[in-house]
Write a structure and sequence with these properties.
Blueprint lengths: L6 H17 L12 H10 L17 H14 L3 H21 L2 H13 L4 E4 L15 E5 L2 E12 L6 E7 L9 E7 L5 E3 L13 E12 L3 E2 L5 H16 L1 H20 L1 E2 L2 E2 L4 H29 L5 H26 L1 H4 L5 H8 L9 H11 L3
The structure holds flavin-adenine dinucleotide.
The site of flavin-adenine dinucleotide has 19 residues, from strand 1, strand 3 and helix 12.
Length: 378
Amino acid sequence: MDFGWTSEQTTLYERARAYARAQLAGAVEAGDGLPRALWRRCGEFGFLGLSVPERYGGLGMDALTTARLMEALGRGCEDTGLVFSVGAHLFACVMPLLEGGSDGQKDRYLPRLCSGEWVGANAITEAEAGSDVFALKTRAAREGDGYVLDGTKSYVTNGPDADVFVVYAVTDASHGYMGLSAFLVEKGTPGLRVGRRFEKMGLTTSPIAPLYLEGCRVPASSRLGAEGQGAPLFKRSMQWERACLFGAYVGVMERVLERTVDFARQRKQFKRAIGKNQAVSHRLADMKQRLDSARLLLYRACWLMDRGQEAELEVSLAKLAISEAAVQCGLDAIQIHGGMGYVTETGIERVLRDAIPSTLFSGTSEIQRDIIANHLGL
Ligand SMILES: Cc1cc2nc3c(=O)[nH]c(=O)nc-3n(C[C@H](O)[C@H](O)[C@H](O)COP(=O)(O)OP(=O)(O)OC[C@H]3O[C@@H](n4cnc5c(N)ncnc54)[C@H](O)[C@@H]3O)c2cc1C
């Protein structure tokens, strides 16, 4: 077993972290849409195409290095909303395009999506199809040389800013899992409308909105992969997202732990640093233990993915551990910072607000536990 990074990986990690810290500092609570100038900078470094081959404008990294670079992004950039938008774009739009797209689709979309010229989004969830993702009602009816899409998607990250959407719809209701297909639908297509942006408790720079498809006609050439291949494509994109996107939360936890340790060493009460109290130092020790165990689960999952081995169980274990550790990290950081932790302008309480949705998106904690229990034979 080799726990070492190559010198190339180490250099890249350090460069990515320094770039994120210096170039991606922005209005973390702006709440009025994706910061496009920062988005372009993400593209300039290569964050928007970490796992995409260089010929399409990406960095050509494997899953493990991609997760490590997402970690650098989450550690260096305090705007976790921006980081989340990058992850949703890359793992739920760009990667299915790379893995399921035709040469023509890849040539048209990937360079624009990797450079930051375009923003990508993914639309599967519906009012009655959340965790039960295969209960979709959106239909794609074959008509002549194309399809007509009708339905409503409830939460689309990047939706208000997106130039292209990966939309999942039922093409054959009698085929269940194999009755779904994926489509690339461009902004401005007649019949496609993005709804009003939702306000939410965290990840405020990452816009989210519903998507309406009303008689939305697309050519057959916009189908992503073969008809009926939507579900396997989605499943694979969730594997990328559940693994690599959550690398960012490992980076966030590391940054917050460092800041909280510094605070515990400097803040004095009863004439000594608060970190000298076991109640505080043990809380920090537990934060470190949760961070490192979640991180190791992530690296193992990505290592298996890179070997082309089955990794469903390991990816779910990592996603569950990271998201729940991130929420606990937010709570612990507030507790240790005392009143300061609760004051918005210190940025500490935001850690918790940005962490809470991580136990919901990419499959809730309950769904991850279901997957793990299934693998246990239950
Ligand atoms: C910040 C954010 C960004 C998102 N971005 C996107 C996006 O870009 N594209 C997209 O398509 N969707 C997106 N989503 C939607 C997300 O995927 C869903 O919210 C998620 O799948 C859960 O679905 P739901 O909200 O309908 O909850 P439900 O499925 O209704 O679940 C409600 C509760 O019931 C529990 N539950 C449900 N079924 C079971 C079960 N069988 N056993 C035990 N408990 C169960 C759940 O775990 C949860 O606690 C996003 C969500 C958030 C919060």
